[in-house]
TrEMBL record:
Protein name according to UniProt: Synaptotagmin-7
Single annotated GO MF: SNARE binding
A single GO cellular-component term on record: exocytic vesicle
BP terms from Gene Ontology: calcium ion-regulated exocytosis of neurotransmitter; vesicle fusion
Species classification: Eukaryota, Metazoa, Cnidaria, Anthozoa, Hexacorallia
InterPro entries given in the database record: C2_dom (IPR000008), C2_domain_sf (IPR035892), C2A_Synaptotagmin-7 (IPR037732), Synaptotagmin (IPR001565)
Chain intervals for the UniProt region annotation (Disordered): 85-112
Length: 411
């Protein structure tokens, strides 16, 4: 019996051959591949949902007005600021160069949307022509006047100049004033200069200061040009030129009799052209907000060795000389004529409209060194010239975007 049992066990034991092992390995490999593919599919669906969620977040901010340069993709950001409750923007929005998604019209506007504000038609939007290059002879901006007197003592060979006063000077500070003084030269000599005292926060300063140029015979004075330059003093940066006057002394009947002059200040010829910035602004009184659109820039100053720049625009909202908020556009690489079409929304109570100003600073981005400023413009009720005209036109045409070119300056 025992021998029969052992024989039966040996007959039932079947060893695995090479074919069976290959089949089992194939089944295991196929199962592993199916599991990996399923996991990858789930990950892909999850990332797709995140992207849709992110896009819907940008779509929900569709209360920005869409208007800009035709033919260019429009970008709008739901950036808000109020004078009563200013919170710092998120890092991803505040950082220059962060990509933003374009708005869509698939969703209805939020309840707080200004339903009375018309939707501008981009195709019919009037874009002002680009300003020509800086032409001092054709400039019409009022820079103020300077009053002064001249007399000459031929016996002592002394030319006496009295700077009396100035009037109607433009504001150069955020506070709506200037700190003017006058620089005096007898060209072509630029080494020996004289200056008046600084008059703090005064657009109509009075000096009554006397300056004497000694040792100048009459025939030598005839080859000289009296040069007066009014500047705005800045303690922390370079002084900002306001305007200048040039009078060839050969055109004046020099003598002991005092001659009094009143001359209009002209734009400084030595000012470098920094570029122009096209800004659109719209006032929506229903919601107490101002929609600012940085549209484009033209002929920006070259800032790197290849003759180009990487510009972006910072926007400061100022109230009472203090900065309330800061916004930034994206960076446009290697472009002296960048197009942005990016909008920003600011909430401004009616009682604060006279005190708020917007400072636009065009910067050149540098990955290695510090970013450099190209130029600035200031818009607000307390500005002058073209800036004040733009602000006044915006306030006089509520719910209508008003676009205007502005020449960049160094404040």
């Amino acid at each position: 019996m025992i021998s029969i049992h052992q024989h039966t066990s040996q007959e039932n034991t079947v060893p695995y051959g090479p074919n069976a092992i290959a089949i089992i390995a194939s089944i295991v490999s196929l199962g592993t591949i199916v599991v990996i593919c399923s996991w990858c599919y789930k990950c892909w669906k999850g990332s797709e949902k995140d992207a849709e969620s992110t896009e819907s977040d940008y779509d929900s901010s569709s209360d920005s007005q869409l208007y800009g340069v035709p033919g260019h993709k429009y970008r709008a950001f739901a950036k808000y600021s109020t004078l009563s409750d200013v919170s710092p923007p998120e890092k991803r929005i505040d950082s220059p160069g962060y990509p933003k998604k374009s708005l869509k019209f698939s969703q209805p506007p939020p309840q707080e949307y200004d339903v009375q504000a018309p939707q501008p038609d981009i195709s019919n939007f009037v874009i002002p022509p680009e300003p020509p290059l800086l032409d001092q002879s054709s400039s019409k901006e009022d820079l103020g006047k300077v009053y002064f007197s001249i007399s000459y003592d031929s016996q002592d060979m002394v030319l006496t100049l009295k700077i009396i006063k100035a009037s109607g000077l433009p504001a150069k500070d955020f506070s709506g004033t200037s700190d003017p003084f006058v620089k005096i030269l007898l060209l072509p000599d630029k080494k020996h200069k004289m200056e008046t005292r600084i008059k703090r926060k005064n657009l109509n300063p009075t000096w009554n200061e006397v300056f004497r140029f000694e040792g100048f015979p009459h025939n030598k004075l005839l080859s000289r040009t009296l040069y007066l330059q009014v500047l705005d003093y800045d303690r922390f940066s370079r002084n900002d030129p306001i305007g200048e006057i040039e009078i060839p002394l050969s055109d004046i009947d020099l003598g002991p009799m005092t001659l009094t002059f009143c001359k209009d200040l002209q734009p400084c010829k030595r000012q470098e052209h920094l570029g122009d910035l096209l800004i659109s602004m719209m006032y929506q009184p229903t919601n107490n907000r101002i929609v600012v659109v940085v549209m484009k820039a033209s002929k920006l100053k070259k800032m790197d060795f290849i003759g180009s720049c990487d510009p972006y625009v910072k926007i400061y909202s100022m109230h009472g000389g203090k900065r309330l908020d800061k916004k930034k556009t994206t960076i446009k690489r290697r472009s002296k004529d960048p197009v942005w079409n990016e909008s920003f929304i600011f909430y401004v109570p009616v009682d604060k409209l006279r005190d708020i100003t917007f400072v636009f600073t065009v910067m050149d981005f540098d990955r290695i060194t510090q970013n450099e400023m190209i130029g600035q413009i200031i818009l607000g009720y307390r500005t002058t010239g073209s800036s004040l005209r733009h602000w006044t036109e915006m306030m006089g045409n509520p719910r209508k975007p008003v676009a205007q070119w502005h020449r960049l300056q160094l404040y």
